[in-house]
Amino acid sequence: MAYRDFKHYYLFYVCKHMQSEFPNLVSYNHFVELVQKVLLPLAVFLKTRCLDKCTGIFFVDSTALRACHIKREHSNKILKGLATKGQCSIGWFFGLKLHFVINYKGEMLDFILTPRNVDNRQPLVGSDILAKIYGKLFRDKGYISHHYLKNSS
Asked: Which run of H or of E encompasses 65?
């Protein structure tokens, strides 16, 4: 079954069909409050313990992480102060952008979260997301800049 968003998945699947897996399940509203508290520790844990090794062939891309519908941006409590308004291929939304690097096996090597209105090329130049990578890197046109063209020849 397809769900419109995470809220519907949580309410209509997790709360109804996964009670045995999650006996102390909190309400959706409390879950939203908890997300704000655990986002930074979760990112640190993922960065330090859960990333895989280099294989020589890599892909970099980004995806939108929607905090809420664009009409509700002023009343948003999730990611308050971090999320921004931006546009993607399917329209405007309020949230963050997840940039990630994976190997040819689909294993995540690194990631970075940015406000939605940040250009795709900026996190690659301004961070160490590509520091541990060697070999061939494949990306779409949104990541091409003169910086990489000069360094790749």
From this structure: strand 57-68
CA gyration radius for the chain? 18
Helix (H) or strand (E) holding 49: helix 28-49
Bridging pattern class, strands 136-138 and 91-103: unpaired
> Which residue's entry shows tokens 């999320």?
83
Which amino acid is it at 95?
G
Could you tell me which of 110, 135, 124, 134 has the C-alpha nearest to residue 52? Answer: 110
Q: What is the DSSP letter of 2?
A: -
Tell me the pTM: 0.58
CA 51 to chain centre: 14
Backbone angles phi, psi at 21, to 5 degrees: -75, -30
* Tens digits of residue pLDDT in 99-152: 888 888 888 888 888 877 777 677 666 667 777 777 887 877 766 665 544 444
Residues in the chain: 153
Q: Where in the chain are the domains?
A: 1-50, 52-153
CB 96 within 8 A of CB 83: yes
